[in-house]
Design a protein that fits this description.
It is built from 3 helices and 15 strands.
């Protein structure tokens, strides 16, 4: 393995050498901050065995408008209106998930739902969001916009929070939000508006781990439910997702 493609010890946890696949820094990616060591960065690009690229035929519009989600090859654009989700056509239990995303407006809000129960999807007759484990997708400007009204943004971050929604539960990894439900990221890795961000999510046996732009930052264990649907979130602002790949695991 050369000096430009290194994987952290944490990233190897639970994998055999054959299961890792290729690692690469995506084209156009911002340099790693000086405070982050090269050995702590791992970009998994989904070129190993078992990966499948997800596209238009792999998702179903749950409660959005017909033009909320627009596909162009491997990229899907979300208008942000109304609040709702685009779900996978099939449920998943153990898997790895890759995607890139970029917010197109300051203070944008979105997310990726894991293990969302079909019952909570079916209850959505109008704008709203399902249950499940959410991997937050926030623009860096969201915190400043939130605090303009005099509120304190101490219960969320803009760098990859992981948390349960509704009746779902999870034991969050440290650092933990004041309310005890969210796993806060251990490093600030997200890039700002109009810049692509790379998420690698590993969901196995009720445990979720998130890597943001090559570094593991947050997650949780003892999740319920621990099987269900994936969903991309529309929540008020335009966002692009691209290169969504999944590798189902035993």
């Amino acid at each position: 393995m050369d000096g430009d493609t290194r994987l952290t010890r944490r990233a190897f946890h639970g994998f055999s050498a054959a299961s890792i696949g290729c690692l690469a820094v995506p084209a156009g990616a911002s340099p790693v901050p000086e405070s982050v060591s090269e050995r702590d960065v791992a970009f998994i690009d989904g070129t190993g065995p078992g990966w499948k690229k997800l596209g238009k035929d792999d998702f179903i519009n749950v409660n959005c408008h017909d033009d909320t989600w627009t596909w162009d090859g491997s990229m899907v654009h979300c208008s942000g209106q109304p609040v709702g989700v685009l779900r996978s056509t099939k449920p998943y239990t153990n898997f790895e998930l890759l995607c890139q995303w970029r917010h197109l407006r300051d203070a944008g809000n979105s997310g990726i739902f894991l293990w969302s129960p079909i019952e909570s999807m079916n209850r959505l007759k109008g704008p709203g969001l399902p249950e499940g484990i959410e991997v937050q997708v926030l623009d860096l400007g969201y915190k400043d916009a939130y605090e303009k009204g005099g509120r304190k943004a101490d219960w969320f971050t803009c760098h990859g929070d992981v948390f349960p929604v509704g009746a779902s539960t999870m034991k969050p990894f440290s650092p933990v939000a004041p309310n005890g439900r969210r796993s806060f990221p251990s490093a600030e890795r997200s890039r700002g508006i109009n810049q692509w961000n790379h998420y690698y999510i590993r969901a196995i046996n009720g445990e979720v781990r998130l890597w943001v732009n090559g570094m593991e930052v947050s997650g949780g264990s003892d999740c319920t439910p621990r099987e269900g649907y994936l969903a991309l979130e529309s929540e008020g602002s335009p966002i692009d997702f691209k290169d969504i790949l999944i590798r189902p695991l035993p």
